[in-house]
Design brief:
0% strand, mainly alpha, 3 helices
């Protein structure tokens, strides 16, 4: 029982020296045909919610590519 505080301190401090790992999301590339089809669909659909969702996805994909390049 005397060694419990020492063991607890060692366990608590053992994570301090480790380097944090960065995990980036996977970006699945779109084919040229898919990009053209999406462009046509967006031109035909004027719903602002759809356009906002696509813009947010584009921003997320750009962030994920930047994350992958930073590693």
């Amino acid at each position: 029982m005397r060694f419990f505080p020492l063991v607890l301190a060692i366990v608590a401090l053992s994570g301090c020296g480790s380097v944090p790992q960065h995990v980036c999301p996977l970006v699945v590339p779109w084919s040229a045909d898919d990009q053209k089809a999406l462009s046509r669909a967006l031109d035909a659909d004027k719903d602002p919610l759809i356009h906002r969702a696509v813009q947010e996805d584009a921003g997320f994909r750009a962030w994920a590519r930047g994350c992958q390049g930073a590693q």
